[in-house]
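Worked example 2:
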Amino acid sequence: MDRKLELLAWTQNVLSDSECYIKPASSDASFRSYWRVFSKSQTYIVMDAPVEHEDCKPFIKVAKLLEKSGVNVPKVLAKNLEDGFLLLSDLGTVQYLSKLDDENFESLYSDAIISLHKIQASTSTNDLPCYDDELLKFELSL
């Protein structure tokens, strides 16, 4: 079966909604892809992370750490680690940068700095690996 159809079938099963459908939401510099799910009652995001290239467990771990720190992050609502599918809450389509203007930049940047402080104050090197030259080089090679 086509991977997109597998993803849709899993999503419909998890939501108990055979009429929901998916459209591309975004992608990142990895093998993961993100799809917006349109269901009867609301929207969700479903992440496809092919297991031969990606491991969902670190994503789930970081999401939990960030949520615990009080930062607004998507909640992991359902998971299928065998196939690399995660159902996430949808934070919407508006990007931070598109809202910045001369009137609100101070408050938006202040909010961002407060969020960064919450993350730094609530995590330790035991929670996440140090961001070092090796990790930077790995990320640049993607």
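The domain at 3-140 is CATH 3.30.200.20 (Phosphorylase Kinase; domain 1). The mean pLDDT is 91.
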